[in-house]
UniProtKB/TrEMBL annotation:
The lineage of its organism: Bacteria, Bacillati, Actinomycetota, Actinomycetes, Kitasatosporales. InterPro entries: Cro/C1-type_HTH, DUF5753, Lambda_DNA-bd_dom_sf. This is Helix-turn-helix domain-containing protein. Pfam families: DUF5753, HTH_31. Residues 18-73 form the HTH cro/C1-type domain. It comes from Streptomyces guryensis. Signal peptide: none annotated.
Length: 285
C-alpha cells in the first residue's frame, strides 16, 4: 500500500487537519510557534503542506492542541510517516516543480491556460526537448533529457486505462504559430495535438488572434481539482525562480471565473481542432 501513497497529497491533508485543530483551539500560528520555540514560518509551511512534517512535529502539535483521542493522534502520525515517502518523480533526482507533479499525479481534473506553448501533457518528445533547451539555455543536456523524461512520465495520466486525468486546455493561437525546433517538428506536434484532442477526456480550445484582448493575457496558469472532497482545489502559477500555489476559495473562484471567460471566447473544440489541423498543413509546405 505504501507504494500508492502520494506524499504531496498526504502533506496537504495533514496540514489542513493541523490547521483545523489549531483553529478549534483558538490559537494563532504565532502563539503555537512561541509555545514550541520554533518560527512562525515553520508552522505556516507545515499547514500549507510545503514542508515535510515529522512524527515528532505531529506529537508536539497535538500536545499543544490538547488532542486527547489517541486514534486521532495515531492517524495523524501515520499521515506524517506516509508524507515522508517518495513519489515516482523522486527517482529522477531534484525536480524543481516536484510539489506540482505530486498534485497533478493525484488530481481528477486539470484546467490549463497557456498563451505561449503547447501544454506539457500534450507535447511530443521532440517538441519538449527543443522547448526546454530553448527556454533554459544554460541547462546541461543530461538535465534537459531528465526533464523531458519526467514530462513524458506525467503524460501517463492522460493515457491511463482507468481514471485518466480529465484535461481541459485553452491556448492562444500564438502557441501554434511559434516555431519551436523547426517546421517539421511543429507539424508533428500539431498533428499529435489533433490526435490527443479526440480523446473523450481531453478538450482543446484555441483563442484566435482576431479575438483581440482577453483575460488570459496576464499569463499561464492551471487549476487542479481532486477526487477527494477534503482536498481543496489549487491554482498553480509557474515562476522563473519559484512557483505560486493558491488554495484560498476566493482566489480559486476568481481564476475559475476567468477560465470560464477564456472558454467562452475561444473557438469550440471542433473549430479549434480544424484550426490546428490547418496550421499543421501550413508547416508541411
Amino acid at each position: 500500500m505504501a507504494s500508492n501513497v502520494n506524499p504531496t497529497v498526504r502533506r496537504r491533508r495533514l496540514g489542513q487537519e493541523l490547521r483545523r485543530l489549531r483553529e478549534l483551539k483558538g490559537m494563532t500560528a504565532e502563539e503555537v510557534a512561541e509555545r514550541l520555540l520554533v518560527s512562525q514560518s515553520k508552522i505556516s509551511r507545515l499547514e500549507n503542506g510545503r514542508r515535510s512534517i515529522s512524527q515528532r512535529d505531529v506529537r508536539d502539535l497535538c500536545g499543544v492542541y490538547e488532542v486527547e483521542d489517541h486514534r486521532i493522534v495515531d492517524s495523524l502520525m501515520q499521515m506524517a510517516k506516509d508524507s515522508r515517502q517518495q513519489g515516482w518523480w523522486h527517482s529522477f533526482g531534484d525536480i524543481p516543480y516536484s510539489v506540482y507533479i505530486g498534485l497533478e499525479t493525484d488530481a481528477a481534473s486539470l484546467r490549463v491556460y497557456d498563451p505561449q506553448v503547447v501544454p506539457g501533457l500534450l507535447q511530443t518528445r521532440q517538441y519538449a526537448e527543443a522547448l526546454i533547451a530553448g527556454a533554459l539555455p544554460e541547462t546541461a543536456t543530461a538535465d534537459v533529457g531528465k526533464r523531458v523524461d519526467v514530462r513524458l512520465r506525467r503524460q501517463e495520466r492522460i493515457t491511463a486505462p482507468e481514471n485518466p486525468l480529465r484535461l481541459w486546455t485553452v491556448m492562444d493561437e500564438a502557441a501554434l504559430r511559434r516555431v519551436v525546433g523547426n517546421r517539421s517538428l511543429m507539424r508533428d506536434q500539431l498533428e499529435h495535438l489533433v490526435e490527443q484532442s479526440q480523446l473523450p477526456h481531453v478538450t482543446v480550445q484555441v483563442i484566435p488572434f482576431d479575438m483581440g484582448a482577453h483575460p488570459g493575457l496576464n499569463g499561464q496558469y492551471a487549476i487542479l481539482e481532486f477526487p477527494d472532497a477534503a482536498d481543496s482545489s489549487v491554482v498553480y502559477i509557474e515562476g522563473v525562480t519559484s512557483d505560486l500555489y493558491l488554495e484560498k476559495a476566493n482566489d480559486v473562484q476568481k481564476y475559475s471565473v476567468m477560465y470560464e471567460h477564456l472558454r467562452a471566447q475561444a473557438l469550440n473544440a471542433d473549430q479549434s481542432r480544424q484550426l490546428i489541423a490547418d496550421i499543421a498543413k501550413d508547416y508541411a509546405r
